[in-house]
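Good morning C.,

I know you're traveling, so I'll keep this short. The sequence:
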Amino acid sequence: MRLSEFSETQRSKLRKTSQGHLAFIPGPIPRELDYTSELVNALSEADRALGELSGVGQRLANPQMLIRPYMRREAVLSSRIEGTQSSLAQLLLFEANAPTQRPDDAREVLNYVRALEWGIASLRRLPISHRMVLGLHQRLLHGVRGQRSTPGRFRTTRNWIGPEGTPVEKAIFVPPPPEALSDALDDWEKYIHEVDSTPPLLRCALIHYQFETIHPFIDGNGRLGRLLMPLFLIEKECLSQPLLYLSAFFDARRDNYYAALMKGRTSGDLRPWMLLFLEAVKTQAKDAAARADRLVALEADFRRRLRSTRSKVVHALVDEVFSGLFVTASRVAASEKVTPVSARAAIEQLVSAGILREMTGRKSGRVYSAPEVLRILDTNRSRARSIAGER
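The tokens, ready to paste straight into the viewer:
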């Protein structure tokens, strides 16, 4: 991290640590913003797209049809930004306790799902706070590679951002040292719960920027920072259902994502980041609504393919195909309270209708998914690159 890369005003936030290297000490989150016409227009477009998505959520007879699939898509893409290699199909196989490639990566992605589910459920009794962040971090890193990175505890050692293997002296960015974390995190938490006139979307952008700049954990900062964005929008009632996730946008524009965050640190100008964030909200809200329309239409098509059967188990399976994304005979037998033979017969009807396809190639412990559903969800793949410290 070179002094010359920072503007004159931002240099005042650089401090030399006891180890002799420079670290960035962020100031308080800005409470007053310069509302340029570009920012106002971008905010209006993002708000409009978010409102349309909320309308989709309110119209759904069964919101779980989209909520669980969208969560899993977000988990795959957010983890992929940090170099975790797992597809949606591999995640489903891992959830079904079936053999899959890169099981360690799939476990990391499943941890993301579990942390997000816990966070959404916890909002009923626990606001976004230090306590929630520590709980999310503990679930995110439980039993995976970051297990050694003190899950559920703020760091007590330095960290830095740069290509893997980069020494701190050549780091792209060095967050505040441990002794500066408390003040920065206290201001971050205070800002979340302050009442002011800043629109929620811009508050969300500022909260994410500040969290990534503080980098309060040894590992998991990037994933946790992105996980907090939908939680904040849910807490502020910007969404009728948890259907908006932004990692697909940032995965596709990874260089822009990191550059905009870094621009705020080096120049103090947060407009590039706020504009990128608002573009992400607009793009992903429209994308989520479009995918919802396609999934609803596909469900209707599945029902038409099965209209000749009166089996309640068969029709219940259609719901599970969307909300659970995979089925097994044992799960069907348990959920529908039927025999394994009846469960397998119901599954075979969906296979014959071209709805389900077996994923493992095994004769026992078979796992089925709907390829047409996965095709709608599992897109926007991009080559993963790992950046040490951003995980």
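Safe travels,
E.
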